Structures are given as structure tokens and as C-alpha cells.
Amino acid sequence: MFSKLVILLPLLISVVSSQDTNFIYNGFRSVNLSLHGIATITSNGLLELTNDTKQQKGQAFYPTPISFKNSLNDSAFSFSTTFVFAIASRNPTLKGHGIALMISPTRGLPGGLPNQYLGLFNETNNGNATNHVVAVELDPIQSPEFKDINDNHVGVDINSLESATSTSVGYYADSGAFMNLTLISENPMQVWVEYDGVKKQLNVTLAPIDVGKPKFPLLSLSRDLSPIINKTMYVGFSSTNGPFLTFHYILGWSFKMNGKAQELALSQLPKLPRGKERSKLLTIGLPVILVSLVLVAISGATYIIKRKRKFAELVEDWEVDYGPHRFKYKDLYIATKGFRDKELLGSGGFGKVYKGVLTTSKIEIAVKKVSHESRQGMREFVAEIVRIGQLRHRNLVPLLGYCRRKGELLLVYDYMSNGSLDKYLFDQPRVTLSWSQRFKVIKGVDRDYFIYTKDGIRLSFIET
After folding, report:
1. Best CA proximity match to 58, nearest among 127, 109, 123
2. Domains of the chain, first to last
3. Which residues cross the membrane (predicted)?
4. pTM of the predicted model as reported, rounded to 2 decimal places
């Protein structure tokens, strides 16, 4: 009898020592955790694994090692844990790498990368049996190299980010219907992870915090963890955000070795920061901004098109020969201040004449707008205009050039401050020309016409 007691005593001590590991945190204010990387505890008691710092990892561990195996037969004990988490991203389409509940031989996992592998592994040790790591990943990214099933899944990882089993995020209602959930929703969710050391089965269950624990687990893995874990291990959380700004939170955590973890007091859990404001920004603010940008782009494009049409000109290939005598419509528009009535010098049967000042040269000009609908004979007409523009005479108003638009021809002259001859002849001027002066004008025109034609210059009179 005594020998049996001696044999059973170490087993009893082992069991009792393992059962002593039992903790519950309804928030983490004043809690002693081993924090690594950018992990921190906020003023209201949230465990914040990552924040708005890029390419970083955050890890948090229960500070003391836990006995996970029976010292007599080296078999893994049963354990149970539950926690509440939430993931918030500045942009739901650009998100961090998720959260992993991990059982590891050391605290900190210094070899874990901050931009991949959930901070657990690196490209060298991923998949090594010597890692002795068991993790449950909550993964919002589909990584083909790890054979992820989608970009919203839960998986059980054994020494590698290539999950031993995985499934889409959700839970089974009492009716057996599967209810889909989204990891990055800013909505707190609760996870239960339970390992049966007798049946050698690991169950993972997930549900929103306003739904009780479902009857059916989300996924199960039949695997003896004894060869994988060491006698003493650390338990905690790991997360990385890579190049994207993502907040990974743990709101509460409960753990028990060889028994069922205590239920969290959900009403006592800390609140997420600015949840409503951030949600409004994403659901209302972002669409409004995008719509506004589209409207601004449309308005800008419309303005540019209208502006191009406003200053559009009619240019044909043959007009290249007359380039130096052609004015841009935009320059004439600006010179005459938009052809406003205040700049109107006069009008007649062939069009209106406006006063203007060229912006670059500051030369005063007179612009006559003449309507033309037919293109027939236009080439000859323009050629004659250019030829007249080459003539220089004291009694002729210099023709500087022209501009063509659809249905409109613009002739550009030097501006005569005293007006043209026709005003003194027909428009009841303040100063009337005497018959002697009128006769001199007629003689001058006749003499000049004779001189031009004698020298072989073809002078045509164009009615405008």
C-alpha cells in the first residue's frame, strides 16, 4: 500500500501544480504581462498588439512558464482558454496580418519577422520541427505561399504558417446553419480554444460577443500535441501589421490548465477607441470623399472641354503658308476683354469692330468680326487678306492679320484713334470735311491706285 502511495505522489503533485495555472483578465489594466515589440496596454485596459506604426510586430505573454506535460508519461495536459479580440484597419482593403494565439518555448520569439509570418517564424525556420510552436491564427490575408484558403480564415498552425487545418471565419448556429463573420470589422469576437489530452483533439470555436458559445466548434484537429510542445511553455499572442496601419486588440483573456477556463465578464471589458467615429469615417466619410473627387474631376474635365471649345479655331493645311499673319483667337479674346460691348467701336452690315490691346506687345488693335458660313473661295479670300496686309500706305489702315473660327472670320487692324474716313463722310461727325478736303481725298486715292497698278501690284478691294 505504501509503495502505491509513493508511486502516485509525483503524479498527484504534477497534476496539482498544473492545475494551479489559472488566470482571468477582464481587461488588462495593471496586469503584469511580458510585452514585446510595439505591444502596449492602453489607459483603459486594452491590450494593443499593433498600432499605426508600419512594419512592426507586437507580442504579449503570460509572464511565467506553464507546465504543459505530465512529467511521468510526457503526455500533454488538457487545457482551455478563451479571449475576446477586435481588428480595426484604416482601410479595410489594406490590412495587417491578423492575430495568433500561441504556445511557444520562449517569450518574444526573436526570430519572428515583423512584416510576415505573424511574428512567429521567418523564411529560414518556418516549418522546422524544432520550433515547438502551436498557434491558432486569425488571418485576414490570403498568402498563396502558405496555401491559405481565403483572406478571412481561422487556422491551426503546427511549427509553420501552413495550417494543419483551416476554415472560413464564422460560427454554427444551434440549427446547424453556418453564419459568416469578417475578421476586420471592428466588432469584438470571442474565441474558445480547448485541447483534450485524452482524446488528443483540439477544438476552436468563434462567435460575436453578443452570441453565446456555439454548441459546435468551428474547426477541430485530431493531433497529439505531446511530441510538439515541451514540458514547460509560454502562452500569449502575436501580431504584425506589415506595411499597413492596422490595430489588433485583445479585450479580455482567460486560461486554465486541466479544466474549463472561467467565463469572461463581457460587460467589464474595456471599450474600443473611437469605434463609431472610425466606422463613420469608413462608411460615410470615405464614400463622400470619393464621390467629391469624382465630381471635381468631372467638373475639371468639363471646364477644360468648354474652354477648348471657347477658344477653338478653324485651321486648314493650306493656312500654314500664312502662319505669321494669323492670330490666336484666345489672344484676341483677351485683348478685347471677351468682345464685350464696352469695347465696341462700331458695327455694320458685315460685322462688328472691337477695340483691343495685345497682352504681350501692348499694341492697340481693332478687330472686325465677319460671319462666314461657306468655305468656298476661303483660301483665295485669306490670301488676298494677307497680300493687303503687306501693303503700307499713309492713307490705308494697316491690316495686321486674321483669325478663323467655325462660321466666323476676324480681321485685325491697327487701331486708329481718330477713326476711319467713312465716319467723317457719313456718320454726322462733329468735324465736317469741306468739299475741297473731300476732293483731295479722291485725288489721293486715284493717284495711289495708279502708282500701285503701274508697278504691277494687283490691288483688290475687299468689302468687309
Report:
1. 109
2. 14-272 (2.60.120.200), 317-454 (3.30.200.20)
3. 281-305
4. 0.58
